[in-house]
Amino acid sequence: MDPLDFLETDELLRFFHARKTEMSCMENPQTFLSQLRDHNLIPEDKYQSIIRMKSKNKIRTGVYDILDWLENKNSEHIQLFWRCVFKDVIMTQYPTIKVLHTSLMDGSFHFDLQLPAKVESEESEERGSSKHSDSEKETKSAKKKRKASSASNCSSGEDQQPGLSVKQNPGQRKKTKKINYSSPRKGEAEEIWTWPLYKSQLPVTCGQEEGTLIRDKLAKGEKCILVDKQWFSPSEFEKFAGKGSSKNWKMSIRCRKTPLGKLIKEGHLKAAAYKNRRKLVKGKQQNEEESEDEDSSMEEQTTGDSTGDEMEGQAELLEVTSDQGKFKVTCGALTGTLHKKRFGSGKCGKSIRTELRWLTPVEFVNVALNQSDATWRKDILYDGKPLSHLIEARVLLIHSLLCKCNLCKPKPEDLDNQKNDDECCICKSEGEEELVECDNCPRSFHQNCHLPRVDDAILRDDGQWMCTFCIFKAIEECRYPDKQRAQAVMSRLISQQLLECQYLLLYLCSADEEQIFATDPGQYLSNYSSIIKTPMWLDKIADKLKREEYQTVSEFVSDVQLIFSNSATYNRNNPEYLEMSKNLKQLFDREFERAFNIQD
User: Fold this and answer.
1) How many angstroms separate the CA atoms of 241 and 222, rounded?
2) Which residue numbers delimit the Bromo domain (predicted)?
């Protein structure tokens, strides 16, 4: 007789309940999930949604959700669950399962399962929701071409800007600063605010920024959205995400694509009145007490370490967003994006990302104007105004000369890290997975996001690694010196044009800044399948390309165009998303002609 027959069902369920987190942290859980699917313990759609995930953090959360579903919806088959996972092939691959098997068989689980009674209060649910996320912080072995993300602390006091998140040594792992949430369950995409897990807080997004909204604080009119240990009011979070011009946070801030205004109107959220604040910058010195008063309706500040760039004459007004993280800047004909978290001073911190590389403000001016003595505060412009305006507004904080952070006193590996992006070029997230750095451009990638996938053997190699973007650019001119006919190109075998197709798909993913077209719309739009009969998204095309399911270039292009036509059909009454798909289609058509040197 099977030893499991001697254990009561409630004992197996209690044991399962206490071990869900451990099982969700198993490495490469696909075999484990396949075993559950083969025994009809989990639905096919839940299985498919997990194996398509790329982020390890999301996979763990997804596995936990499946186990939680199994406990709540399929608990009568708990004995079958343990029997199917306690197979030798499963226990050999997953040491965690082997340990659980030993604990059940020798009875030792009785000594460590003295669980307290379940408490259904808000505090207990908050602790419960954080329990799983804490387990996800376990460290893993490092790989060679990784970035690290250790928050650098500025020693110049509370008013100093934190230094750039860079690695302490080449082998450290890079941990995400973003709050990750699992994909919504099927049929519940529009009702996440009713889940017990989100009784006290909700995941919210605005543009590309993600945060956590605390319900009670919103109801009291306090700063209620937490992002990277910083608190924002809804309007501040809207500005932080670069959507301040809309001045309508109830529509621009969303929970799973649903505006907060709709949740408030339907009674799912309570919101107090928030006062609108307009920050003003004047060219005269103000009291330190006024500069530290966050609730003041205006801030009139200048920095004590500016070097003759103070504004003179009548007060000049400039509306700024002190929590915004990125700024489009220009100098002469050169354009770039200044990243606040990388900014230390004019010479410290490569904080401006151009198309080709990362530069310090001084280097940016030197490249743009070919002047070694240029004054970067005056010559770099943001929104038509000198960069000194952001410094005087204390939006950008210059680190002190005594600062010892990784920006101001960088080690060799810190300087090397500053040459590459901090997030994946494709999925726009840092994640807990390793980021592979291109040795020829500033781009960084997750191994699975890049096409083709970056193998572990390449990471262990001491040689140079170039991404598909750089390889395509290096051989672009010599591949098609003569003009090509579009019809002839479309009929070619994709095996002969694989580089061009990989480049085009990566280009689309990179251009899709808000990841609108990356995943299956049916996961978060409840009525999508009733309108669109043949859904298509970028991740699915990437999977088909990896599995060699396309025979000709035409088949590949047809799927790409299907994304745009589906979007046009579904978003007929949504101008914002319709415009996004049109712009992306124009980019694809242009790059397709350039990639194959198509004749007009």
Assistant:
1) 19
2) 525-578
Q: Does 244 share its domain with 293?
A: no
Using alpha carbons, select from 151, 210, 158 the residue that is nearest to residue 179: 210
In angstroms, the first-to-last Cα distance of the chain is 76
The rounded distance, in Å, linking the Cα atoms of 520 and 535 is 7
Token pair listed for 399: 């680190």
- What mean pLDDT value characterizes the chain? 76
Greater model confidence, 561 or 201: 561
Domain span at residue 99? 3-111
In degrees, to the nearest 5, what angle opens at C-alpha 137 toward C-alphas 237 and 143?
105
Q: Total domain count for the chain?
A: 4
Per-residue pLDDT reduced to its tens digit, 411-456: 888 888 888 998 899 988 865 567 888 989 999 999 889 999 998 8
Give the Cα separation of 154 and 493 in Å (integer): 56
Tokens of 541: 């095309």
Tokens matching residue 451: 């096409």
CA distance 398 to 390: 11
**Do 489 and 527 sit in the same domain of this protein?**
yes
Return the SS3 of 562.
Answer: helix
pLDDT tens for each residue of 279-308: 323 233 333 333 333 333 333 333 333 333
pLDDT higher than threshold 70 for residue 547: yes
- Distance from C-alpha of 350 to C-alpha of 348, rounded to nearest angstrom: 7
- Amino acid 182: pLDDT: 39
